[in-house]
Specification:
Chains A, B, C: Pfam families: MC_hydratase (PF19315). 3 copies of one chain form a homotrimer. Chain A is an alpha+beta fold. Chain A is 20% helix and 29% strand. The termini of chain A are far apart.
Chain lengths: 355, 355, 355
């Protein structure tokens, strides 16, 4: 009669190079996409309309890229971050083949870095996690690192070399992006999509205030996080939260990413695809009742090798809580995030060229 | 580097006769219908059961008519009512071919009336909006008029004639209703549908208290309104609402229509289809925490030309907040809506005849 | 112009042996399953992944068994329990053929017991309810009994014999369980499913604390209960609840069952199917804001006749409110349920054998 429940892994339980098979696979359906729409109000044309997607050569409307991210990520939580103290960062996130309703996603992770912290209480674990569909095709591949508690105090670990892993890119290169086979944006209908702006209209350094704001309710973030089968307990258990330093359930950081991206429609309506997540910081925690605003900065605008129909925008997406974003809030004079900045995401999208 | 975000149209930005193509098309799925059921508890048999719908000759369960309304309507918000001061009325709403899961809906509007207000601050815009499926077939056609802010004070506008448009019907005539091809209600199963009442059992002037009440939560109306991709900011942003005269997020009027219609099952269970929306007033605002009750009055009961299986009921659907409807509350002695009346909807349905 | 609305049945309106056809049939879709996942965070592999289900010989991922229960049950509410004072018990619940997206469920009930209470105000009604799919195949069959108000005080009723019905089983026998045709668990993948525990690892008397807790919001239980088209008004109407002894909307007992079962994943991840509901008590009411924890006891572990791939576990699932379950709370010294115990469910599941 062994211990039946999952206590989560502690720092000592990870081995460099080990591959972890995450439970449980998940078939993504139109119902999931409906819920995603209802939770964030997203309306990017290619994900909203099967007809629009077909006009670009796709077989139907792909599942929203960030819904794919959340599902692939959610699988890793019971094995990687159940005893995490902090979610430290993301790097090298690349979206692969598009996901369509009916596809089944599963995730595996490889431990690529381990570093005990000097305090002897925690260590940092780097994992590369790969989500695949039922045909084994990569749908998302990314690195994240988390600070995890030790089971017992100490500082030594069998393998601590290569930390942070030396091949972590600062950003995914345009030539490494996966462009869905058959995607052809030459006939892109800017009127149906919502805005007249094409790739050529965006300039590095340009800042866009996305204007609108959205207030989060407890039921909403809980419904979202459970949809992703993310089991991190800090999001669901108020009884336990009564004893934490906030006295509140924490909102899953990915919920803020999706809210901010949905708000970004106002100014970035014509994004065809999220192609990469280069880096990300959850700068401050959010709670139910917070109102989220967002703004974006164009980091760079690059050609997509071999293509005249699509360009690559690398964007910085900033979300705030309880503060409008018209003045582009970010950091204070000391380079610290302002207290009302909650997200700083570096990601890459494909946008149609005017041609 | 042009302005990237949508500031919405002001009164001066509308031109009589102009056609507006609304973004973004939306494929309606079984997931949307599930959410609609979960948000309102609707259980009209023809929309609830594909088998029941097939027993009436249809190819499957049509998407709930009011879900179609909300999606078609939601598309118009960014172009028509982002700067609206008030949603003044509806007329001549006709439902066309039924919508099934997998259909893609898009909306276009034609400006059919423009009238500057004497105060020089606002004007009234009349639009006819038409929702179509991917085959170009009309699924909903209706007129609404809204009061919109001017960009700059003034009273003149290039075209102000024909206001209100002279061809607005008081109610859609029974002979103008669209009856779905193949719909045959001769074998209608009143036991499975929920009530024994047929068309012959309803009498003009009859009032029905729908008895049940439902309390609205913030998360519910937000999830609903986002499902419809309706972007009207008053429904989502508490930070901004803190500064309005209510200090609250306003609930989308269509949410109340759907709640009231769902409550109307108790007394009108056998409605096969909403065929027309003749007129409607959102008499008072609603907020989270309000409990909605509803009652109906039969305005008229008419034969459906050429049909013996279906009859036409024109109904008035009244919703209240925080007050039961057993005494049929409506207006005060001066003809003003009572403060707890929130909806007065004039609509037309198809009901099976006993034969 | 007869009374149009459903007043519900009183004790005198039931006749022994009578069969009641419940409205309205319901086509279950992938959207319903998505919502179910989002409401409870359930992630049992066979329901989560069509690929995993196919690896066990099934045609696809079956709809979650308890979602089937709630839909079949919900149909009975308008006819059986609209005037119920209390839901007294369940017995002999057997799940039949699995339900897949696209199936249409309907429910009929037979009155199998009637007993007036001595106070002359109420009586107890026993019904056997059977849910069937569009092919007439049984998907769920169970007995429940409820205390119902009398229309007029009295103690006599035409037929009061056989109460409680003499053939009510204490638990469904392993030989009476329905095992889905084609289900073959020989290749069961314990890694993908989430835990290494097979049937052989569970011991009668073993107790499992499921560790995690989940806090319920008003929007969540309302959305769930409406998804099931359950119309019991105590769950939805705060205006009326203001006058009840709690001053609160009561949460549907089935919502707690589903929450507790979802929490039970942690320790019982490899359950392939809920096969029977033997008995159940909603020990105390729950309200929004309550945090639910759960623990299980293995009542018995039996072979499944003729099968080497699956074993039968009879389980007791206990849920608490606002109290962790590590100390297995249940009853006080007098045998009364503790005030923070809210569910005591006796049910039977199929679990893969290691072989």
């Amino acid at each position: 009669m062994a211990q039946k429940t999952n206590p989560g892994r502690f720092f000592e339980d990870f081995t460099l190079g080990e591959e972890i098979v995450h439970a449980t696979p998940r078939t993504v359906t139109e119902g999931d996409q409906s819920l995603y729409t209802a939770l964030y109000g997203t309306r990017f044309a290619v994900n909203s309309s099967a007809e629009f997607a077909r006009s670009l050569g796709l077989g139907g409307a792909p599942i929203d890229d960030l819904l794919v991210f959340h599902i692939v990520f959610g699988k890793t939580v019971p094995d990687i971050s159940l005893n995490a103290v902090a979610n430290l960062g993301y790097a090298g996130g690349r979206f692969g083949v598009p996901v369509f309703a009916g596809d089944t996603l599963s995730t595996r992770s490889t431990v690529i870095g381990l570093k005990p912290n000097g305090n002897g209480q925690t260590g940092v674990v780097w994992v590369r996690s790969t989500g695949r569909n039922q045909r084994g095709e990569m749908v998302l591949d990314y690195v994240r690192w988390v600070m995890v508690k030790r089971r017992a105090p100490g500082t030594d670990v069998s393998a601590t070399h290569d930390c942070p892993p030396s091949d972590l890119p600062k950003a995914v290169d345009a030539s490494d992006l996966v462009v869905p086979t058959d995607l052809d944006a030459r006939g892109f209908d800017f009127a149906l999509s919502g805005e007249p702006h094409a790739f050529e209209d965006y300039t590095p350094g340009e800042r866009i205030d996305h204007v609108d704001g959205m207030t989060i309710e407890e039921a909403e973030h809980q419904i979202a996080t459970r949809l992703y089968q993310n089991t991190a307990k800090v999001h669901f258990n108020q009884l336990e939260a009564n004893g934490n330093r906030f006295g509140r359930r924490l909102i899953y950081g990915g919920h803020i990413i999706s809210l901010a991206r949905s708000l970004s429609f106002n100014g970035l309506a014509n994004v065809v695809r999220v192609a990469a997540i280069n880096a990300g910081a959850h700068a401050n925690p959010t709670f139910a009742g917070d109102t989220i605003h967002a703004w974006s900065e164009v980091i760079s605008a690059d050609a997509l090798p071999g293509r005249t129909d699509l360009g690559v925008l690398r964007l910085r997406l900033i979300a705030t809580k309880n503060r409008a974003a018209a003045d582009f809030p970010l950091k204070d004079a000391d380079g610290k995030y302002l207290a009302d900045v909650v997200l700083d995401l570096d990601y890459t999208v494909l946008v149609p060229r005017r041609g």
